[in-house]
Amino acid sequence: MDSKQGAVILGAAAVSYCLGSLPFGLWLTKLRHGMDVRAAGSNSTGATNVLRVAGPATAAATFACDAAKGFGAVELAQSLGLSPLGQAVCGVSAVAGHCWPVFAGFRGGKGVATGIGASLAVDPRMFMTGAALGLPVLGATKMVSLGSLTGAAGYVAYAAVQGPRNDRYAPLFYAAAVFGITTFRHRENIVRMFRGEERKLSFSSRRHAGSSDGEEGHTQGHAHAVRTPVHQKEGH
Questions:
Q1: Which end of the chain has less neighbouring CB within 10 Å, N or C?
Q2: Which among 51, 107, 72 is positioned nearest to 222, based on CA atoms?
């Protein structure tokens, strides 16, 4: 790799980091519900915390936007003609931006949705392997953290097997880096899982008394969580 190609990769990685730093969970929750999602639950801007704080509609929009950040970063690298390694670097940069966003005081999410979007662009088969492993674990345990970690481990397993066969090691770099970031960001969840204290996913809503609108009732039912003390942080 010559110096010009290296400079292009560094520039694209910087743009990808900024793209990943767009805090859609924070913005959408403030826009729709007038609250800071980082002041409730796990204090994360990711879709799982948005679900618990603001409801499924806002969470779905957050997940879609966060996944698009990762996919868009890799697509940007491809449009610039970067090598597979350069594309992987941009995908990892977007995940890092989501976790430590410059536009939100470096307080972001845990990288799962952005990692999913980037993995789909890096290698769709790697994405499918992660989904095939992670989704059943999520369904069986109702723990987003465990499903996310299993899916990320699936990326590594696929890339480790296919890399030597096809002489393609860029997906392995991507998978190993994202697995490391995801594991680090879930370190508190891992401790809670060992203690049997990890919170399970629930789509049940609490309708506010006197409210006739389901989404509004769900949001108001969660609104008091913003005042929850930090020491009572929830799961994922």
A1: N
A2: 51
Cα–Cα distance for residue pair 163/129, rounded to 1 Å: 14
The whole-model pTM stands at 0.84
CA distance 163 to 88: 14
Does residue 193 lie in a domain region? yes
Please give the structure tokens belonging to residue 203: 């789509």
- Residue 42's pLDDT is 85
Q: Which domain holds residue 117?
A: 3-200
Q: What is the pLDDT of residues 156-172, one digit of tens each?
A: 999 999 988 877 899 99
In the structure encoding, which two tokens stand for residue 159, read together?
A: 């890339």
Q: Which amino acid is present at 206? A: R
Residues 28 and 62: their CA atoms lie apart, in Å, by 7
CB-CB contact of 52 with 225 (8 Å): yes
In a domain, 219, yes or no: no
Under 8 Å between Cβ of 20 and 114: yes
130, pLDDT greater than 50: yes
Tell me: the pLDDT tens digits for 113-129?
999 999 999 999 999 99
Structural domain includes residue 205: no
Query: Number of folded domains in the chain?
Result: 1
